[in-house]
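[agent] plan:
  1. take the single chain provided in the ticket
  2. run structure prediction with default settings
  3. attach structure tokens to the ticket
  4. add a short note for the reviewer (M.T.)
[agent] executing step 1
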Amino acid sequence: MNQPQRYKLTIAYRGTNYHGWQQQAAAPNWKGDQPQAGQGIPTVQEMLKRAIVDVVKHPIIVCGSSRTDAGVHAKGQVAHFDTTAVQIPPLGLWRAINARLPADIVVRSLEPVDAEFNAIGSTISKRYQYLIWHGPQRNVFMDGLAWHRSAPMNLTAMKQAAAVLVGQHDFASFAKTGHGRESTVRTVLGCDISQRGAHVVIGIEATGFLWNMVRIIVGTLVEVGIGRYGPERVEQMLQARDRQAGGPTAPPQGLYLQWIRHQH
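[agent] step 2 finished; step 3 output follows
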């Protein structure tokens, strides 16, 4: 029996057709096609696992760094798996897995790593981007890929509000109820806003995120931009430590996991 080798994957996907990253069994009220025995409903992790198993010909566990929600996209999700099929060269393994994946999922890179590497435990920081299509009309070519907002937005006020979020804070007001985390304290390393034509991009880097944290931050910053809140309201939200005090949750389709940094 060969000793197992661990591989690190960097994956990009369009999340529109999937029920998030995380593998899920079919619930009793599941209305889609019933998955085969031992398989789950269509998620990115499920599709990736099926493709890898079809290549290495033995059961595996795919461990992903970030559990993106349904409809959320990724440019640089990171995962790892172990295999005893070490006779397959890494380049051949990478090509074979991609050949078995649907068109909206691609393994951007595959590399052998030490067994100590862990897609979750080795994470240092993550950056998400949120794309807003800011114009009077919807862009039909970006359906499912951006949030359309037509109201005028004051980016200067949004940037002032974003600056308040940088640092270590209790983000309880920016987490979906039922997040299940013991602590809601997180460290935001950067929160920036840029505009290029009709594209408004909000970027947030942190050492970790709470459930829906990025989408609630985006929804809040947009409310500041259209004048419903002043920038100073964000500090009040942080102090409240109550989801009811936070802003609305932006829809999932504009959210992208941009990259994840790991310890080497």
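[agent] step 4 note for reviewer: The beta strands are 5-13, 63-64, 73-83, 105-113, 123-134, 147-149, 167-170, 185-196, 199-206, 255-262.
[agent] ticket updated
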